[in-house]
Write a structure and sequence with these properties.
Oligomer: heterodimer
Mean pLDDT of chain A: 89
Number of strands of chain B: 0
Strand content of chain A: under 5%
Radius of gyration of chain B: 25 Å
Structural class of chain A: mainly alpha
Largest interface: A-B, 101 and 101 residues
Radius of gyration of chain A: 24 Å
Largest sheet of chain B: none
Shape of chain A: globular
Low-confidence stretches of chain A: none
Largest sheet of chain A: none
Structural class of chain B: mainly alpha
Number of helices of chain A: 13
Strand content of chain B: under 5%
Order of helices and strands of chain A: HHHHHHHHHHHHH
Number of helices of chain B: 14
């Protein structure tokens, strides 16, 4: 083994001088949430970096719904799951069909639809929320899970179509031509040639749509209000309504709520980083 | 197109589709779901909203509302100062994370976390950390100096700064990741040649890295501005627009009017943001649909 030179040590030290603050900056809010989750109520407010008596008691309160704010915890968890899954499936269906149509079938007007979708992608979501809230009222969908599902599909689809169209354009035309020569119908090409080749992008887009819906706060809080209809983030926001909010339970529930997206993200990281960042900005 | 040339597929089947090939008919059918979503949840709401905001009185009312003026200024501060600080840090960190070290690879996996976890629990966590009596930050300041720390969210300037910090915390990983992709695309030969010539760190950045990344950097900055205009969570979850409605930005202000049942004002405040948004959108669409 050769000893590092002085210059290498200096470089390493400089990198650490950046790396340590970056690590602290990233982790402190997340660690703080975790610290509250494992602290008894008294310890949480004492400013200690590690509780004297770490405990899983808060988790047991949440899972046994032993607090006023947690009465509907499981229903709300289920609402979040159901809505995220529905948004994932619907977005995949709508976006894949549209991307296939625009990119492979070269449908007349496809380019116009692509541009309209891109335009929607650029409307800041909080701005669309105001008219969309009123529209959902006009449609009679307020406080119905469909309002949130359809709103999130509207927001997720443009980006999904755009990424999938980029990926579709990279597939060689010869594949479709060969399938047509073999007598395949359009639907057969879609099912047997197109979908299998698009799998990695479909996984990335499905994950994107599911995470978007799971994490959404603003639309969920505008469109749903009944305690048994709301999703977990709205329930977390409602914790703040009380004067003496049970912060340790809020953080525990928040921690539980943050675990699935983090797990999904890391499970599909390979697809996500490749599929999404490449699609996000074309330089 | 080859598809249209083959066999019996060119035979017109129904009068409606007589001028279209079956592939094109399928194309329209497959495009229809998105068109329906677009018409029902983009065109109709936006049109309806604009119609609600049409009366000039709305704009007079906005003009006379000091909270609106404050929100517009806050939005500009957020966009011009916040976004540029964020993108410069992202540019700097992309260089750091592009270094080949095992520990840096691990750090990059952790660094993504703010982007991967939902906003609400983490922003509320920061909100509690900044609590003047119970928060970790002031505990730390007290232990260190023996003095009470500031009341972080009670001063509008400090509170807005904290909201910008939260925004940076949340979205820095994403932009860093994109800029890393840009950096890794630069040919390594250029750097090797520069090193042979004895170029300094700054010269390498100035003459190789920056010219190759300039376009990407500008695109990212503009896109980040558009998205930041729609960032509701950073401000709403940290300050709720307070104290005294002085930290609102245009995206939280619209929702504030909505909650006060002043829908036309809510829409009008969004219409007022359009002169910022539309040029950015136009530019981005030109770049992306090339």
């Amino acid at each position: 083994m050769k000893l590092p030179t002085l210059r290498e040590v200096a470089t390493e030290a400089r990198l650490l001088l950046i790396g340590i603050p970056v690590f602290l900056w990233t982790m402190i809010p997340i660690y703080h949430m975790f610290l509250f989750a494992i602290s008894p109520k008294e310890d949480a407010f004492s400013g200690k970096l590690w509780p004297d008596h770490p405990t899983l008691h808060n988790f047991s309160i949440v899972f046994n719904q032993q607090h006023y704010f947690l009465r509907d915890f499981y229903v709300q968890f289920w609402n979040s799951t159901l809505i995220a899954a529905a948004v994932g499936v619907l977005t995949l269906f709508i976006a894949t069909a549209a991307a296939f149509s625009i990119s492979r079938l070269r449908v007349p007007g496809g380019r116009v639809v692509m541009n309209l979708a891109l335009f929607t992608y650029f409307i800041p979501a909080a701005f669309l929320a105001v008219p969309m809230y009123r529209t959902m009222g006009n449609y009679g969908l307020l406080n119905n899970h469909w309002s949130l599902i359809l709103a999130m599909v509207t927001i997720a689809s443009p980006y999904a179509i755009w990424v999938l169209k980029q990926a579709s354009d990279k597939l060689p035309v010869e594949l479709d031509e060969a399938a047509v020569m073999d007598g395949a119908t359009t639907l057969q090409i879609f099912r047997l040639v197109y979908l299998p080749l698009m799998m990695p992008s479909l996984v990335a887009i499905g994950t994107y749509a599911v995470l978007l819906a799971w994490n959404e706060y603003l639309y969920a809080f505008l469109l749903l209000s009944n305690d048994r209809e709301i999703t977990l983030p709205v329930a977390l926001g409602n914790f703040l309504a009380a004067d003496d909010s049970p912060w340790e339970l809020l953080m525990t529930t928040g921690f539980i709520y943050a675990l699935p997206p983090a797990a999904i993200y890391y499970a599909f990281r390979r697809y996500m980083v490749g599929g999404l960042t490449a699609g996000a900005v074309k330089s | 197109m080859a598809i249209t040339l083959s066999g019996d597929q060119t035979i017109p089947s129904a009068p409606l589709s007589s001028r279209l090939t079956p592939a094109q008919v399928w194309g329209i059918v497959l495009l229809a779901p998105y068109l329906l979503v677009f018409l029902a949840f983009v065109v109709y709401p936006v049109g309806y909203g604009l119609w609600l905001a049409r009366a000039p009185e709305n704009y007079v009312a906005l003009y006379n509302d000091p909270i609106f003026a404050r929100a517009a200024v806050n939005t500009l501060i957020f966009l011009v100062i916040g976004i540029n600080i964020k993108m410069l840090i992202a540019l700097f960190l992309s260089g750091f994370f592009a270094q080949q070290r095992t520990w840096i690879k691990w750090l990059s996996v952790i660094f993504i976390l703010p982007w991967a976890v939902p906003s609400i629990p983490t922003i509320l966590s920061v909100r509690f950390m900044l609590n003047p009596e119970w928060g970790m930050v002031n505990h730390f300041i007290f232990t260190l100096t023996g003095d009470d720390g500031p009341n972080w969210l009670n001063d509008p300037t400090v509170a807005l700064t904290m909201a910008i910090a939260v925004h940076i915390w949340k979205s820095l990983p994403f932009w860093t990741l994109i800029l890393i992709t840009g950096r890794l695309a630069i040919s390594h030969d250029l750097f090797e040649a520069a090193e042979v010539d004895g170029a300094s760190w700054w010269q390498k950045f100035r003459y190789i890295t920056w010219p190759s990344m300039q376009t990407l950097y500008v695109t990212c900055t503009l896109l980040s501005m558009i998205w930041t205009l729609g960032d509701f969570n950073s401000v709403y979850l940290l300050t709720g627009g307070g104290p005294a409605d002085l930290t609102h930005v245009l995206s939280t202000l619209g929702i504030r009017y909505l909650r006060l049942d002043q829908l036309s004002l809510a829409m009008a405040s969004i219409v007022c943001a359009m002169p910022f948004v539309l040029p950015l959108v136009y530019f981005m669409m030109k770049r992306l649909s090339r």
